[in-house]
Amino acid sequence: MEVTENMKTIYLAGGCFWGMQKFIDQFEGVIRTEVGYANGPDDAPSYQDVCRSSGHAETVRIDYDPSVISLADLLNYYFMVIDPLSVNRQGNDRGIQYRTGIYYTEEDQLPEIEAVYQAEEEKAGAKLAVELLPLQNFFPAEDYHQKYLDKNPGGYCHIPRSFFKL
Protein backbone atom coordinates (compact mmCIF):
# COMPACT_ATOMS: atom_id res chain seq x y z
CA MET A 1 0.00 0.00 0.00
CA GLU A 2 1.48 3.28 -1.08
CA VAL A 3 0.68 5.86 1.61
CA THR A 4 0.97 9.50 0.76
CA GLU A 5 1.50 12.27 3.23
CA ASN A 6 -1.77 13.99 2.33
CA MET A 7 -3.89 10.84 2.14
CA LYS A 8 -7.57 11.30 3.06
CA THR A 9 -10.26 8.78 3.91
CA ILE A 10 -13.99 8.71 3.20
CA TYR A 11 -16.53 5.96 3.91
CA LEU A 12 -19.29 5.26 1.37
CA ALA A 13 -22.27 2.97 1.82
CA GLY A 14 -23.89 2.20 -1.51
CA GLY A 15 -25.79 -1.04 -1.20
CA CYS A 16 -23.78 -4.25 -1.52
CA PHE A 17 -20.16 -3.42 -0.78
CA TRP A 18 -18.74 -5.94 -3.27
CA GLY A 19 -19.63 -3.88 -6.32
CA MET A 20 -18.92 -0.50 -4.74
CA GLN A 21 -15.39 -1.63 -3.87
CA LYS A 22 -14.71 -2.94 -7.38
CA PHE A 23 -16.17 0.22 -8.93
CA ILE A 24 -14.12 2.62 -6.76
CA ASP A 25 -10.89 0.61 -7.10
CA GLN A 26 -10.61 1.54 -10.79
CA PHE A 27 -9.96 5.25 -10.24
CA GLU A 28 -6.50 6.74 -10.24
CA GLY A 29 -5.80 8.36 -6.89
CA VAL A 30 -7.60 5.65 -4.91
CA ILE A 31 -4.81 4.22 -2.78
CA ARG A 32 -6.68 1.50 -0.94
CA THR A 33 -10.21 0.25 -0.27
CA GLU A 34 -11.57 -2.02 2.41
CA VAL A 35 -15.13 -3.29 2.86
CA GLY A 36 -16.74 -3.36 6.26
CA TYR A 37 -19.67 -2.51 8.47
CA ALA A 38 -20.28 1.08 9.61
CA ASN A 39 -22.46 3.23 11.82
CA GLY A 40 -24.24 0.49 13.71
CA PRO A 41 -23.95 -0.54 17.37
CA ASP A 42 -20.43 -0.42 18.78
CA ASP A 43 -20.00 -4.20 18.82
CA ALA A 44 -18.08 -5.70 15.90
CA PRO A 45 -20.64 -7.68 13.88
CA SER A 46 -20.26 -10.76 11.73
CA TYR A 47 -21.73 -10.81 8.23
CA GLN A 48 -24.55 -12.97 9.62
CA ASP A 49 -25.29 -10.29 12.27
CA VAL A 50 -25.43 -7.63 9.57
CA CYS A 51 -27.78 -9.76 7.46
CA ARG A 52 -30.01 -10.08 10.54
CA SER A 53 -30.42 -6.28 10.76
CA SER A 54 -27.67 -5.44 13.26
CA GLY A 55 -28.02 -1.82 12.16
CA HIS A 56 -24.66 -1.56 10.37
CA ALA A 57 -24.36 -0.43 6.74
CA GLU A 58 -22.23 -2.31 4.23
CA THR A 59 -19.59 0.34 3.63
CA VAL A 60 -16.36 0.85 1.69
CA ARG A 61 -13.48 2.66 3.36
CA ILE A 62 -11.64 4.62 0.67
CA ASP A 63 -8.14 6.00 1.20
CA TYR A 64 -7.36 8.45 -1.58
CA ASP A 65 -4.83 11.06 -2.63
CA PRO A 66 -6.70 14.38 -3.04
CA SER A 67 -3.92 15.72 -5.25
CA VAL A 68 -4.87 13.01 -7.80
CA ILE A 69 -8.64 12.57 -7.26
CA SER A 70 -10.86 15.04 -5.48
CA LEU A 71 -13.47 14.08 -2.93
CA ALA A 72 -16.05 15.72 -5.23
CA ASP A 73 -14.99 13.41 -8.09
CA LEU A 74 -15.24 10.34 -5.84
CA LEU A 75 -18.71 11.40 -4.73
CA ASN A 76 -19.84 12.08 -8.29
CA TYR A 77 -18.74 8.55 -9.23
CA TYR A 78 -20.57 7.21 -6.17
CA PHE A 79 -23.81 8.91 -7.20
CA MET A 80 -23.46 7.38 -10.71
CA VAL A 81 -24.01 3.88 -9.31
CA ILE A 82 -26.62 4.31 -6.57
CA ASP A 83 -30.29 5.21 -6.48
CA PRO A 84 -30.08 8.13 -4.02
CA LEU A 85 -33.84 8.14 -3.37
CA SER A 86 -34.11 4.48 -2.41
CA VAL A 87 -34.44 3.66 1.30
CA ASN A 88 -32.64 0.53 2.54
CA ARG A 89 -32.42 -0.90 -0.96
CA GLN A 90 -30.11 -0.93 -3.99
CA GLY A 91 -30.92 -3.21 -6.90
CA ASN A 92 -32.27 -6.53 -5.58
CA ASP A 93 -30.62 -6.05 -2.18
CA ARG A 94 -33.02 -5.00 0.58
CA GLY A 95 -32.48 -4.32 4.26
CA ILE A 96 -30.98 -1.69 6.56
CA GLN A 97 -27.45 -2.91 5.72
CA TYR A 98 -27.99 -1.77 2.11
CA ARG A 99 -28.79 1.83 3.00
CA THR A 100 -26.76 4.56 1.35
CA GLY A 101 -24.51 6.88 3.27
CA ILE A 102 -21.55 9.21 3.15
CA TYR A 103 -19.61 8.98 6.41
CA TYR A 104 -16.78 11.43 7.02
CA THR A 105 -14.04 11.63 9.65
CA GLU A 106 -12.76 15.15 9.03
CA GLU A 107 -14.95 18.25 9.37
CA ASP A 108 -12.96 19.98 6.60
CA GLN A 109 -14.44 17.44 4.13
CA LEU A 110 -17.97 18.64 4.86
CA PRO A 111 -18.18 21.70 2.55
CA GLU A 112 -17.10 19.61 -0.47
CA ILE A 113 -19.49 16.79 0.50
CA GLU A 114 -22.39 19.19 1.04
CA ALA A 115 -21.82 20.88 -2.34
CA VAL A 116 -22.04 17.56 -4.21
CA TYR A 117 -24.95 16.38 -2.05
CA GLN A 118 -26.91 19.57 -2.71
CA ALA A 119 -26.29 19.34 -6.45
CA GLU A 120 -27.55 15.73 -6.44
CA GLU A 121 -30.64 16.75 -4.47
CA GLU A 122 -31.39 19.49 -7.01
CA LYS A 123 -30.88 17.01 -9.87
CA ALA A 124 -33.25 14.51 -8.20
CA GLY A 125 -35.80 17.19 -7.33
CA ALA A 126 -36.34 15.47 -3.99
CA LYS A 127 -34.72 14.93 -0.60
CA LEU A 128 -32.05 12.24 -0.85
CA ALA A 129 -32.23 9.05 1.21
CA VAL A 130 -28.41 9.09 1.47
CA GLU A 131 -27.23 9.52 5.05
CA LEU A 132 -24.67 12.28 5.54
CA LEU A 133 -23.11 11.71 8.93
CA PRO A 134 -19.81 11.59 10.79
CA LEU A 135 -18.39 8.06 10.95
CA GLN A 136 -19.36 6.51 14.29
CA ASN A 137 -17.53 3.21 13.79
CA PHE A 138 -16.21 0.90 11.10
CA PHE A 139 -15.47 -2.79 11.43
CA PRO A 140 -13.61 -4.50 8.56
CA ALA A 141 -15.59 -7.32 6.94
CA GLU A 142 -14.34 -10.89 6.84
CA ASP A 143 -11.48 -11.61 4.42
CA TYR A 144 -13.68 -13.45 1.93
CA HIS A 145 -15.62 -10.20 1.32
CA GLN A 146 -12.48 -8.17 0.48
CA LYS A 147 -12.15 -7.75 -3.33
CA TYR A 148 -15.00 -10.27 -3.62
CA LEU A 149 -15.84 -9.61 -7.27
CA ASP A 150 -12.18 -10.01 -8.25
CA LYS A 151 -12.22 -13.47 -6.62
CA ASN A 152 -15.76 -14.26 -7.84
CA PRO A 153 -16.29 -12.46 -11.18
CA GLY A 154 -19.77 -13.92 -11.59
CA GLY A 155 -20.97 -12.64 -8.20
CA TYR A 156 -24.17 -10.59 -8.05
CA CYS A 157 -23.92 -6.82 -8.14
CA HIS A 158 -26.47 -4.06 -8.71
CA ILE A 159 -23.84 -2.01 -10.56
CA PRO A 160 -23.72 -2.79 -14.31
CA ARG A 161 -20.48 -4.60 -15.19
CA SER A 162 -19.71 -1.96 -17.84
CA PHE A 163 -19.18 0.56 -15.02
CA PHE A 164 -16.17 -1.40 -13.76
CA LYS A 165 -14.14 -0.19 -16.75
CA LEU A 166 -14.78 3.52 -17.16
The gist of it:
Helices cover 26% and strands 24% of the residues.
Number of domains: 1
Please identify the structural class as seen in this structure: alpha+beta
CATH superfamily: Peptide methionine sulphoxide reductase MsrA
Q: In the CATH hierarchy, what is the architecture at level 2? A: 2-Layer Sandwich
Cα distance, first to last residue? 23 Å
Q: How big is the Rg?
A: 15 Å
> What is the C-level CATH assignment?
Alpha Beta
Helix content: 25-40%
Q: If helices are DSSP runs of H or I spanning 4 or more residues, what is the number of helices?
A: 5
The description of the largest β-sheet is: 6 strands, mixed
Set out the fold topology.
Layout: E1 8-14, H1 17-25, E2 30-38, H2 47-51, E3 57-64, H3 71-80, E4 89-90, E5 93-94, E6 100-104, H4 110-124, E7 131-134, E8 138-140, H5 148-151
Parallel strand pairs: 6-7
Antiparallel strand pairs: 1-3, 1-6, 2-3, 2-8, 4-5
Helix pairs in contact: 3-4
